[in-house]
Amino acid sequence: MxxxxxxxxxxxxxxxxxxxxxxxxxxxxxxxxxxERRDVEIAEDAKHQGGKVIKMCEDCDVLxxxxxxxxxxxxxxxxxxxLVMDEGPIDEVLERxxxxxxxxxx
Length: 106
What we know:
By secondary structure, the chain is α/β, with parallel strands linked by helices. The chain has helices spanning 50-56, 70-79, 90-105, and strands at 2-6, 12-13, 22-28, 32-39, 62-65, 82-85, 88-89. The chain contains three helices and seven strands.
């Protein structure tokens, strides 16, 4: 499973999807592994930019941000990406999500 988190500093999930200038990508199989940082060109004064972040994460299964809008939800659904709202330190956010998936699959 490939997971992406929207973060301003690489340490915390702390941005709205449409303000996500950087996305940190992880792979989860038997363990969690950092893959890469992806930078997104976000215009400071524009609205509805979640689509840019979603496009940057088309190879991901899950995209986690503090918040996202209705249009982004539709775009993510069309791309086959699950959007999740959470915030806090990246390692804790990813652990919560993985624990939830494992619990639901057991």
